[in-house]
Amino acid sequence: MNGRIVAVSIAAACPQPLRPSKNRPNPALAIVAARRNLIAMERKQKIGLAVGAGVLAAIALLAWRAASVETGDDGAGLALAGEARRGGLTLELPQAVANVRVREARVPGRPIVLIDPGHGGRDPGATGVSGASREKDLTLAMARELADLLEQRGRVRVALTREADNYLTLEDRAAIARRLQAGLFLSLHMDSAPNPLAKGATIYSLSDVASSAEAARFAMAENAEAGALSSEADDSVRALLADVALREQMEASAGLAERLLRRAAGRLELRPRPHQFAAFHVLRRAETPAVLIEAGYISNADDEAMLLTKEGRAPLVLALAQAVEADLATRTQR
To answer: CA dist 159 to 33, 58, 101, 113, 195, Å?
Structure first.
């Protein structure tokens, strides 16, 4: 080029070590992380599908059970109440559960309030201090008066677990509540204590933990005839649903008890701690908001005299009726 010769020096290329950029991701680590994320996503999908399938199965099973309670059919292998099937047997419901009269409200389809007069038949309950009263007679009288008042007011349907002097187990009473799909369950009792000065009404609601030693002893005595609480072997999903339902039942029962006490305040004498709670078998097995009412101490002369007359029972009967109607109205509006 223009006669010039340009000398070019060619040196051996020296290989330089590769240094990973701080801003450039390591391909191997990226692959590992992506694989981990994929495995985690697949695991979450499998868990979600399993839980979803379990919940759907549990809901279907509960719906089937509810339908079987309503129709009396517990499945293909069992018989309808009073019906014999080929290759099966005839299943008859206990008379106490089958024959329950429901008094209608002014508006059809209103919730059912089930009133349970405690004791009955061969179980007289407590005896009054005068010797002239028995708990089973007083609870039945109060239950009839409450049912009559609720029927007269016409805002709810109402039924009694017993309308005569007959014996029912705790499970019989709870079974009636379940079969009728009662909106509320009220168990009526009269209290008794060694201390003749003890007096006043107490309302008990359902809880796994007793509010006091006295409440625990009372629940134990009431549960004695029922034996251990029934439990069913079940899958975890259904057990979880049952636990959630029980918690809701406990909260609704406590709310009903507080509402009742507000209505009763100033109308009748209450215990110093009038709202107590414990694990009552009949309240748990009713599977609906439920309370147990101790109307007073028939071991106390004043309380017994009050509970022996319709006029003396009237303030508590009215408070119960108003609290029941308010409670159901509140829950219906939700």
So the answer is: 65, 31, 6, 6, 35
130-151 as b/e: b if 16+ CB within 10 A: eeebbbbbbbbbbbbbbbebbb
pLDDT in tens, 73-95: 444 333 333 333 333 333 345 55
Strand duo 102-103 + 157-160: pairing: antiparallel
What are the residue ranges of CATH 3.40.630.40 in the chain? 95-333
Max Cα-Cα span within the chain: 145
Cα 38 to Cα 30, 44, 173, distances in angstroms? 12, 10, 55
Count of residues for the chain?
334
For the domain 95-333, what is the CATH code?
3.40.630.40
Q: What is the pLDDT of residues 112-153, one digit of tens each?
A: 999 999 999 999 999 999 998 999 999 999 999 999 999 999
